[in-house]
Amino acid sequence: MISGKSLQHLITNLITEFICLIFIELCDFGIAESRCKKVGKSLAILVSLWQKQNHSPIE
Prior knowledge:
Radius of gyration: 13 Å
Number of helices: 2
Structural class: mainly alpha
Helix content: over 70%
Distance between the termini: 20 Å
Order of helices and strands: HH
Strand content: under 5%
């Protein structure tokens, strides 16, 4: 049985991975490369804030 918290954790991981994949694909095509880097940094900051708030690392 999956608890609500671990399910939320799993969903958040999937969403984060999906967003990362989208931006990696865009960056690979050279579309707005500097913007991709900014978004990547912002995403990393958001993930680290989420980790601190929930006291659980995203793997």
